Amino acid sequence: xxxxxxxxxxxxxxxxxxxxxxxxxxxxxxxxxxxxxxxxxxxxxxxxxxxxxxxxxxxxxxxxxxxxxxxxxxxxxxxxxxxxxxxxxxxxxxxxxxxxxxxxxxxxxxxxxxxxxxxxxxxxxxxxxxxxxxxxxxxxxxxxxxxxxxxxxxxxxxxxxxxxxxxxxxxxxxxxxxxxxxxxxxxxxxxxxxxxxxxxxxxxxxxxxxxxxxxxxxxxxxxxxxxxxxxxxxxxxxxxx
Length: 241
Known about the structure:
The protein has helices spanning 28-33, 49-53, 64-85, 113-122, 125-133, 137-151, 153-162, 173-182, 187-201, 209-218, 222-229, 235-240, and strands at residues 2-4, 90-95, 100-105. The protein is mainly alpha-helical. A hairpin with a 4-residue loop joins strand 2 (90-95) and strand 3 (100-105). Helix 5 (125-133) packs across helix 6, helix 6 crosses helix 7 and helix 8 (173-182) crosses helix 11.
């Protein structure tokens, strides 16, 4: 996962980091730099000027030995930076084609969900992914949630359920009291309806009947809530916009 520290989204990310938009780039940014030429001469600007200083510009990554050598070098560079920054997962680098500082997040692959939970409890790197998506973590969480809900809806809903989150929301005491009053329900009828809804949605539907009846005795806001439910269908979405 990579994000331009200026706040702009990045087009190129490290392939070892989550959220890469180009998974088949050894260095997509460097590929752009290959075509860059100095305007005042015919001399081609080196694609990898820093690597060239250390004699690594022509390393052949198609060769396993050279590729492993490059990975070890990259690993040590990252470890050195993290030693300085104190961050376990965040990696900062400058994209050659844009000359801007970018933050990437290293993620791990786990053999089982249990292994993931154990490791992530000690090192919650997905939190760094959320933080990288936007300076405001709420916005970052919203963006990640939107992606998962659209691209992996079944898994998203199952994860929400297993975490005890009702995807459709839970009726609070005012909403529950409005339903109880408007439908003229008795206790047993309420309990039957809630039982069927819990079975269908496999999650909590409303606050307890005790809280609902307490709100009914209070009476405040109930009629207003009932009035809201009688608006034309679709008006809720229009109001949200």
